[in-house]
Design brief:
With about 240 residues, this protein is an alpha/beta fold. It is built from 9 helices and 10 strands. The chain has a 5-stranded parallel beta sheet. It has a 3-stranded antiparallel beta sheet with strand order 4-5-6, with helices on one face. Strands 1-10 form a two-stranded antiparallel sheet. Strand 4 and strand 5 form a beta hairpin. Helix 4 packs parallel to helix 8. The longest helix has 17 residues, at about 185-200. It binds 2'-deoxycytidine-5'-monophosphate. 2'-deoxycytidine-5'-monophosphate binds near residues 144, 146 and 198.
Amino acid sequence: MFKSVPIFTPQNVQSVKKIIIAIDGFSSCGKSTLAKALAKALNYGFVDSGAMYRAVTLYLIEHGISIQDIAAIEEALTKIQIRFHAGSMGNRTHLNGRDVEDKIRTMEVSDLVSPVAAIPIVRRAMVQQQQEMGAEKGIVMDGRDIGTVVFPSAELKIFVTADPQVRAQRRFLELQQKGQEVPFEEVRKNLAERDHIDSTRADSPLRQAEDALVLDNTDLNQEQQLQVALDWAKERMEVQVL
Ligand code: DC
């Protein structure tokens, strides 16, 4: 049995330390879902770092910039401003003041984002911004290199895994719910390709940090995986719930 999610309030918590929670893993294994839920339960900030690479990708597509044209990408990076805004429809990614949350989740962007995220100047720019966002701690960030490169000293590192077939099924359903009719096989292939590019690229490949805790959620529902992660977080926050 899993306990219900505790609510931390100043009245029932003693000696809470603000920490950084880094969540990494392959595509569509539930990292962002977990990160969002953890941030909500702990009243922490949440950053979906993949959304930042997606926003850069969208910018390049919309401006007809080739991913081979490093000089144009370098120039583009000086003009790209990415922000997250919490609203009634959840956390929304804004690119230069425009809500692009739905656009960055399309297959057009998914097909190009891994090559874009493999470009060192793109990574350098995103990592710098991510480190600034975590300077005050009290943040949950998910991605591929958060525990290894962005926050190597994060107090809690979680490496999320799930069976590839289950991941493809989850992403397929997610796209269907958003009205995007993409064949299952195309979704499965896109995930496999992204996994391959993300874990074999030269710059900051996806890998499990040595001190990361592995969370395999193949057979866990969202509430169950949250409870596992919350227990780990509480240990590191030195929380005493009265
Ligand atoms: O988590 P996601 O599927 O939205 O990520 C989109 C792409 O961005 C993914 O193919 C890998 C890349 N990415 C990365 O290289 N480093 C991160 N910290 C986050 C995402």
